[in-house]
Amino acid sequence: MTTYSTSRLASDNNTPQATTPLIADYMPNAPIALQPTKGGVLTITQNEFLQRVNALSQKLPSADFALNLCEDRFQFLVVFCALLLKGTTNLLPPNRQPLTLKDIAKEYGDTCYCIFDSPNKCDIAHIDVSQLALDITLEEIATAPNISNTQMAAIAFTSGSTGKPKAINKRWQTLATTAQLLSQRLLKAPTALVATVPPQHMYGLETSLLMVLQGNGIMHNSHPFFPADITNALCNTGMPSILISTPIHLRALIKSGAINSDTKPLPLQGVISATAPLPASLAEAYENMLACPLWEIYGCTEAGSMATRQTHANMQWALLEGFKLHHSTTDNTHPQVTASAPHLFEPAPLGDTIEQLDENHFLLGSRHQDIINVGGKRASVADLNRQLLDIPGIEDGAIFLPPNGKIESRPAAFVVSALSEHEVRAALSKRIDATLVPRPIISVPNLPRNSTGKLTQQALQQLWKTQQRDKATQ
Amino acid sequence: MSEQTEQERELAEVLIEALELEDISAEEIIAQAPLFDINAPDSLGLDSIDALEISLAIAKKYQVQLKADDENNKSIFYSLRSLNQYIQDQNG
């Protein structure tokens, strides 16, 4: 059942509120999304959106958990909210590999099901939302529904220190407040949001979906990929727009020549980048090319977005309101930093080394060595190695980052196995995201393990150098 | 045996260079084999980041901008042969 009450912002006063409305400043006739059509663009109002959410919510089965696998950004948001109203937690799997989905579904009980919006091979209980007939009435909904702050809105998955993907709980208040804080800092007025990041990724979720519910964002329902897609989507919005992207996509946009003196000016108010830090010189070059400011967001799956910076102007990260950093001194080699904030229900450990400048500002050091980051997909080396060694026919193996000095480089692997490189790659790709599958995968007679069976980074890098040298002289 | 045309060989060289593929040479790419589906035999098993790199290399070499929202995107990007066909059509 859905209850309705007057909408208000959780942060409006100091007394803690038990609920936060689904849409913060609900205005029935204001746009919530822009749907590109053949000839132009269609506006979807907040009222129409709520109607769809209500209608879908009534059709869904009662369940504690569902895997939200919708690919269309707007459909993903409708399903996300319908599940919220139903009291069902959105599970956001780290990838779409069949084994991953099966493992997660098994862990979350008998009622857990998949929900998607396009034909999908799936051998667990599922609903294709595009096949559901929804009864949409044309009545105006006066107020947005309230959602309990403590309700488990979503569970994201990340690589844990044990090497097994770890479930990260996201309560409604955490997601809603993060989006409010981001919007206050980055969106001064209603702005169309064009995003190259998928809605399932925590960064894509907080910016391209939740800033629409809780801030000044208006979703452009697209998922542009190639540079020409990005410029097309931006030209389609017909209003001031912000591009939400990653260093990989931005680099391609700049280098492609898709923006030049012949193209019409883009309605860009700004660019937001996250997943990997940009060097100041690149950020400045991008700002000049795109003729708008570029902001970066720093965050992690555990804490969500927690700081921003306008990179060329200042390398310092400014924490979002309410965030505090805590440094533990128990381990001298890797001082652990945790972040806390009123909207986080527990402190979140950070995977980076951090130099704190004052209460609200910090500089970022290097990421802990165990984490590999390619195109916004992160995994711990321990987890990747576990997946590699799980493959039947692999006697021994190691995944590592070869020393090539790129910002985001792919991992490589050594294996001791009779399997071909193609077979190893195919087996891994069933388990882990394609961008994290090592390349090259090099077959070796044995790994340079020391007398205690340990494989040091130094030994791995040495073997890599030898291999590269041998190849060059072949 | 490879059945690449001269144009396909040229495009294969562009892919190899753009993706820094080390375990395969241009003439070994089978013209009709899927580029992306890792489970298909003879596939290169490329991913989305590779697709971006390919789009850059193609923009530079052929002055063609690839689009994902093109309804035929999946068939364009299916194989070396289909990708080459698309580029030639665009420039034709």
UniProtKB/TrEMBL annotation, chain A:
<dbReference type="Pfam" id="PF00501">
    <property type="entry name" value="AMP-binding"/>
</dbReference>
<feature type="domain" description="AMP-dependent synthetase/ligase">
    <location>
        <begin position="143"/>
        <end position="309"/>
    </location>
</feature>
<dbReference type="GO" id="GO:0031956">
    <property type="term" value="F:medium-chain fatty acid-CoA ligase activity"/>
</dbReference>
<protein>
    <recommendedName>
        <fullName>AMP-dependent synthetase/ligase domain-containing protein</fullName>
    </recommendedName>
</protein>
<dbReference type="InterPro" id="IPR020845">
    <property type="entry name" value="AMP-binding_CS"/>
</dbReference>
<dbReference type="GO" id="GO:0006631">
    <property type="term" value="P:fatty acid metabolic process"/>
</dbReference>
<comment type="similarity">
    <text>Belongs to the ATP-dependent AMP-binding enzyme family.</text>
</comment>
<dbReference type="InterPro" id="IPR045851">
    <property type="entry name" value="AMP-bd_C_sf"/>
</dbReference>
<dbReference type="InterPro" id="IPR000873">
    <property type="entry name" value="AMP-dep_synth/lig_dom"/>
</dbReference>
<dbReference type="InterPro" id="IPR042099">
    <property type="entry name" value="ANL_N_sf"/>
</dbReference>
Automatic annotation (TrEMBL), chain B:
<protein>
    <submittedName>
        <fullName>Acyl carrier protein</fullName>
    </submittedName>
</protein>
<dbReference type="InterPro" id="IPR036736">
    <property type="entry name" value="ACP-like_sf"/>
</dbReference>
<dbReference type="Pfam" id="PF00550">
    <property type="entry name" value="PP-binding"/>
</dbReference>
<feature type="domain" description="Carrier">
    <location>
        <begin position="2"/>
        <end position="91"/>
    </location>
</feature>
<dbReference type="InterPro" id="IPR009081">
    <property type="entry name" value="PP-bd_ACP"/>
</dbReference>
